[in-house]
Amino acid sequence: MTNYQESLSDNEFVNELIAETTSINHVEVIENVIDTLEQDDSAMVSHTSEGGYFWKFKYGSVEVFVQLTGKSDEDTITVWSVVLKLPAKDEPKLMRHLLELNCSSTFEARFGIIENQVVVISTRTLAELSPGEVSRLIAIVATIADDNDEALQSEFGAA
């Protein structure tokens, strides 16, 4: 009987932890992360009519964008940064290089193309997303973009 009571209190503890995790204020977490990364007081935020948020800030030589579509578990956080405008010189070589980087050094992010621009991007739903994961997503995208933009522009820029 004692074991049952102990496991019940363990279950209550787990339920309490789950409740704490689900009540994270993602807007506050994102703004705190941006405050630690942004340079020259460059951070800007806007609110969408659908209840979402959009941030922009400067990190090194790149601008980083963060979009939060809402606050439910089904909503998403997307972080991206433009590293190269297209068209580019030797695009087949560029695409191969980006695929190799995607495989070896982008962690939860990836290189992609949006509106004729090569970007570093990461997207995730808010379900079970911790403050540490939010921080990691933003930092990874910002760092990979800043570490690669100048080299990509130098080798492949402006066809």
Task: Describe, in short, the structure shown.
By secondary structure, this protein is α+β, with helices and mostly antiparallel strands.
Named CATH architecture: 2-Layer Sandwich
How many helices does DSSP assign? 4
Structural class: alpha+beta
CATH class, named Alpha Beta
Per DSSP, what share of the residues sits in E-state strands of 2 or more residues? 25-35%
- Tell me, what's the shape? elongated
Query: Mean pLDDT score, rounded?
Result: 88
Low-confidence stretches: 1-6
Q: Care to count the β-strands?
A: 6
Helix content: 40-55%
One letter per element, helices H and strands E, the order comes to HHEEEEHEEH
Strand order of the largest sheet: 1-2-3-4-6-5
CATH topology-level name: Yope Regulator, Chain: A
Radius of gyration: 20 Å
In angstroms, what separates the terminal alpha carbons?
A: 75 Å
* Overall number of structural domains: 1
The main β sheet shows up as: 6 strands, antiparallel
InterPro entries: Put_sensory_transdc_reg_YbjN
Organism: Nostoc minutum NIES-26
Pfam family, one: YbjN
Protein name: YbjN domain-containing protein
